[in-house]
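Changelog-adjacent note: as of this version, every example in the card shows the full chain rather than a window. The one below runs 221 residues end to end.
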Amino acid sequence: MSKFILFSAVLSTAVLCLAGFALAQSSAPICPGGTAYSSTLLKCAGDIATCTPGVIYDTTTNKCADGKVPVCPSSEMRLIAGTKTCKVNPTCIDGMKFDSTQGICTGVATTVKIACIGTAVTTRETVINSAMTTYTTSLNTAYTARSTALSQAYTLTTLVDVKAAVKTAWTNFSTSKKNANTAWKNARNNTWSQYRTAATACKAPSGVSDSTKSSYELGVQ
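Full-length structure tokens:
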């Protein structure tokens, strides 16, 4: 049982550390057209539409003096009607979101979410491998004990004693095997259950976690 308590503690700590790292990170937004981002204005610099060189902007008509509409510095920008201001939300990388209040890209980066799943998988596999080692060791012990008990049983000289000893050898073997199977199944199922909880907390993109593959193992008794 201590292995599964350890699993929960290690996995929870790993998820919290990764999530904390991600939330503590931020990155400058990416502006279109190669324009620079202004951390003071919290918007892309150069997002003012301009008229043809030499032509002034008429604030009365909200158009250029030649009657044309001002042009934004990038095709990705859109002119706000009745102004010469271009509107565009900067883009963020790695699955992060643009926070217009703070003017930065925030959230948990996709790479960090994937790493979170990786940590959970590694911990899960370590615990399952340990449980399997315990299981096979228990089975080997049970078979060895059965072999020894049966060998001793057939050194006895009376029918009653032989039958009793043989029965005891097989009963003990059956109990040991049953206990080993139960312990293995519980360990395996509990570990997968805890992994799913941890993987969900990572909030990784769909398809990153291998939870759906558990049937390959859980279907084997």
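Structural remarks: The first helix runs from residue 2 to 24.
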